[in-house]
From TrEMBL:
<dbReference type="GO" id="GO:0016787">
    <property type="term" value="F:hydrolase activity"/>
</dbReference>
<protein>
    <submittedName>
        <fullName>Serine hydrolase family protein</fullName>
    </submittedName>
</protein>
<dbReference type="InterPro" id="IPR010662">
    <property type="entry name" value="RBBP9/YdeN"/>
</dbReference>
<dbReference type="Pfam" id="PF06821">
    <property type="entry name" value="Ser_hydrolase"/>
</dbReference>
<keyword id="KW-0378">Hydrolase</keyword>
<dbReference type="InterPro" id="IPR029058">
    <property type="entry name" value="AB_hydrolase_fold"/>
</dbReference>
Length: 196
């Protein structure tokens, strides 16, 4: 049974990206494949993600970079999508790159879902202040990942088991659908940024 749908960013986050690791070691995780990783089109990407949620209702969506923005666009456009929650890791600002510009502007309203945004202080793809502001607009919990770069291979994140622990916080406890209540900055859950 698939419980985690992984949505990579531009160029598909190839191995040894942590999303590839998760898909390889967790039989309940699956990468949502796109027809074109290098020339992304919002309509095509959202259609693939929506189709995956129909096949695997109640999953947690884990989007990285452009994948995080695709998840936001999906939730803002199709509120009927049935998910357990969404984890948006190092969201990318579409205006930073012409190849992803068509994914902008980023929706800035409640996503009506349990959402966690994990963003670093030195991510070249989106300033943390913007990620924090968007998290507030989305009514999402925010995790300050410290100086973790784009939370990818280049910033030292291989398998990233701490990220899986963060994802696990989105699962309902005892049938409860309550929000996870993990809004933290500074210390606390920031320890989840471990690179191993």
């Amino acid at each position: 049974m698939i419980r985690t749908l992984l949505i990579p960013g531009l160029d598909g986050s190839p191995a040894p990206h942590w999303q590839q690791w998760w898909a390889a070691i967790d039989p309940t995780a699956k990468i949502v494949e796109q027809h074109s990783w290098s020339k992304p089109r919002p309509e095509a990407w959202l259609t693939e993600i929506a189709a995956a949620t129909l096949l695997h209702p109640g999953s947690v969506l884990v989007g990285h970079s452009l994948g995080a923005i695709a998840v936001v666009r999906l939730l803002a456009s199709w509120p009927q999508v049935k998910i357990a929650g969404a984890m948006l890791v190092a969201p990318a600002e579409p205006s930073k790159c012409s190849r992803i510009a068509s994914f902008g502007p980023i929706p800035e309203r409640s996503l009506n879902a349990r959402v966690v945004v994990a963003a670093s202080r030195n991510d070249p793809w989106m300033e943390q202040d913007q990620a924090r502001r968007l998290a507030d607009r989305w009514e999402a919990d925010f995790i300050d990942m410290g100086d973790a770069g784009h939370i990818n291979i280049a910033s030292g994140h291989g398998p990233w088991p701490a990220g899986k622990a963060l994802r696990d916080l989105l699962w309902p406890r005892n049938g409860s659908a309550a929000r996870p209540g993990i809004r933290r900055t500074g210390s606390g859950l920031c320890k989840l940024k471990a690179h191993s």
